[in-house]
Amino acid sequence: MPPNDVLARWRLVLGKFAQPRLPDCLTGEKQRMADALDQLYGREYRGRGVRQGPKLGPGSLDPSQLNVPTWLGEVRELFPQQTCERITKHALDRYGLTELVQDPETLAKLEPSAELLAAVLSLKGQMKGPVLAEARRLIARVVEEVRRKLEREVLGALAGRLSRFRKSRHKVAKNFDARGTIRRNLKNWDPVRGKLVVHDPQFFNRVRRYLPWEVILCVDQSGSMADSVIHSAIMAGILAGLPAVRVRLVVFDTSIVDLSEHAADPVEVLMSVQLGGGTNIGAAVRYCEQLVSQPRRTILVLVTDFCEGADPRDLVAAVRRLRGAGVRLLGLAALDANAAPFYDAHTAGRLAAEGMEIAALTPERLAQWLAAAMDQGNP
């Protein structure tokens, strides 16, 4: 018989379904962990008609016995944050436990994450009063967390090129001037240790772009694009803070909503979107076509899965006109932390043939692409 710790691991994996075969070797906190997992994952086995013994545990998540706040409190107390987020994601995505985002007390206890935010956005239309207010607070927390991670790299890519003729007092690793540092500190050479002692590291400055650019973010808000919608809203907020960039933000499904006046406020943008519905990409691109005032200083970023619900010929024709006018075109099948898209390759291929660059990017890579496009367009 395997040692107790091995049995404990199997007991945690199998939950109460392990009881007929394995001795009850769990006590204290491990037993609580097993029970908490069984309350969620045991539902799947019950749905398949698997025998579980004479009685169910008192904490079942069956609808008639649901006590989501208590169960969530156990999960938060017993498991690390990353594991807690994964369990919560399973509860929402796999088991449809929408009670997690329909009770203000429960919603306030959830760990902020992009996955949770996607679930909140998909159910936001059903929320009212205190639940909607709590949803806004959660959206603000997730936006701030994601923005803090992205802002430095995005702004670094877009701030400008290195100027090797101007120095900077801002100590940023990628701007480090190795040769200048050596020259500046030669007087600090230590012959005994055979080392250069650096007292005054040197850094390059960056040349800021002052010629204005217009960036139009045209974002598909169909249900499959939730993560991309979140990152597009945050990206728009970051870009809106740049002095040389004017941001237009348009979201669409079969209808079109221009959120440009809220582009600097990702929370307000996400409170305005309605995930779901059909998709008319061609109509959205035609609307964005009307927003273009300086074609050769305009970049259109179309964020969509390219699953066109309308006649694709209208979409292709609009892209052809924009490209002919000199607008830089980028089609993103995904704009999120993983850049792992599901999309209609045929429609994307037709747009690529008309001059639209097609990719799936993280926000950092999008910033680099925008910087390169602006550099090519600057005199």
Structural class: alpha/beta
Percent strand equals 5-15%
Radius of gyration: 27 Å
Biggest β-sheet strands, sense, barrel: 6 strands, mixed
**Spatial strand arrangement across the major sheet:** 7-6-5-8-9-10
Which sequence of SSEs, written as H and E, runs from N to C? HHHHHHHEHEEEEHEEHHEHEHEH
Helix content range: 40-55%
Q: Low-confidence parts, pLDDT < 50 over ≥5 residues?
A: 13-23, 48-66, 161-168
Mass-distribution shape: flat
Number of strands: 10
Q: Give the overall pLDDT as a whole number.
A: 78
**Can you count the helices?**
14
State the end-to-end CA separation. Answer: 76 Å
Fill in the keyword field for this structure.
single chain, 379 residues, alpha/beta, six-stranded mixed β-sheet, two-stranded antiparallel sheet, 47% helix, flat
Overview of the structural elements:
By secondary structure, this protein is of the alpha/beta class. Helices cover 47% and strands 15% of the residues. The chain is built from 14 helices and ten strands. It has helices at 4-14, 28-47, 68-78, 81-93, 104-109, 114-123, 129-158, 178-184, 226-240, 266-272, 281-291, 312-325, 345-353, 363-377, and strands spanning 160-167, 189-190, 195-196, 204-208, 213-220, 245-252, 256-258, 298-303, 328-335, 357-361. The strands form three sheets. Strands 7-6-5-8-9-10 form a six-stranded mixed β-sheet, sandwiched between helices. Helix 2 (28-47) packs across helix 3 (68-78). The longest helix is centred in the middle third of the chain and has 30 residues, at 129-158. The chain starts with a helix and ends with a helix. Mean pLDDT is 78; it is low at 13-23, 48-66 and 161-168.
